[in-house]
Amino acid sequence: MMSTTAISFEDARTALAEDGFYCIQDPTVGLRILEMERNGSQFSSSSKAGLEFCKSNVLKDERIRTILESSFDWCGLGYYQRIAEDQGHIFQLRKGGENPDILLVHLWSKGSRVIYYRGLHLIPWKSVRAANRMWEIPFAALARAGIHGTEIFFENGGLAILDARLAFEMGHGSPITCGFAVKDELRSWPKLVPPDSEDSAQMIAELETEKVGVYFAIRDGSQISGGGTG
Questions:
Q1: Which of 4, 41, 120, 188 could make a disulfide contact with 49, Cβ separation 3.0–4.6 Å?
Q2: What pLDDT is stored for residue 29 in this prediction?
Q3: Of all helices (H) and strands (E), which one includes residue 143?
Q4: pLDDT for res 222
């Protein structure tokens, strides 16, 4: 399912359940990614600029937040990085799982192309561990099953919200990726590391709301102590 900058909440919920993804064309996202790239800033929780980018473009985006809050009683950000383009490989961030308890947000730069394999989140596959630590599904297995992907072209940039079990192939572009999971899932994830600055704890506290939180290690002086889980 594809949308322009506006979002139909019911369409998004239906698309996530049936197709496994929902896309929004948004040139503002493309421009903000370009600005980060020009400044040489990292898309990382340990970078102040990177954390501010995530806050502005994901955590404070009402379109994204509405879907997260309606999908979970509570969820937390536990994954944030840019996935390097690797053409010819079909990836999953999550292998299997019966419940849709992890959602991803992909932010795409101008001119990006991606293939999402519609409905694949509902089918168990014998994925193998990929070199980038995600899971990979051999193309031959999909071809034998008669499964074909849906190509999305983000002419000026945009975003996608997807079930973490969905498979995708990067035709061109490297998506900035944020993963949100329920508490039981987050407990097995490594905690995100915040920027090495005195105001890190305050920055992180400002990211949390009643229904959407973060899964960070909190710096206490020179040490890192356990962060919140909601």
A1: 41
A2: 97
A3: helix 139-144
A4: 42
Q: How many residues does the chain have?
A: 230
- Given a cut of 50, whether residue 209 has pLDDT beyond it is yes
Q: Which residues of 51-76 are buried (b: 16+ CB within 10 A; e: fewer)?
A: bebbbebbbebebbeebbbebbebbb
What 3-state class would DSSP assign to 80?
A: strand
CB 110 within 8 A of CB 156: yes
Place of tokens 């506006």: 6
Longest dimension (CA), the chain: 56
Could you tell me which of 142, 144, 100, 141 has the C-alpha nearest to residue 122?
A: 100
pLDDT the model gives residue 5: 58
- The separation between the first and the last C-alpha atoms of the chain, rounded to the nearest angstrom, is 31
Tokens read off for 222: 């020179």
Can you tell me the distance from the alpha carbon of 135 to that of 93, in angstroms, rounded to the nearest whole number? 6
Domains, in order of start, for the chain: 2-189 (2.60.120.620)
Q: For residue 77, is pLDDT > 80?
A: yes
Q: Each residue of 165-186: pLDDT tens digit?
A: 999 999 999 999 999 999 999 9
- Are 34 and 176 within 8 A, CB to CB? no
Q: Per the structure block, which two tokens stand in for 126?
A: 């014998």
- Which residues does residue 226 pair with via DSSP β-bridges, in sequence order? 217
What's the CA gap between 127 and 135, in Å, rounded? 6
Helix (H, G, I), strand (E, B) or coil at 101: coil
Structural tokens at position 192: 């995100």
Mean pLDDT of the residues in the chain: 89
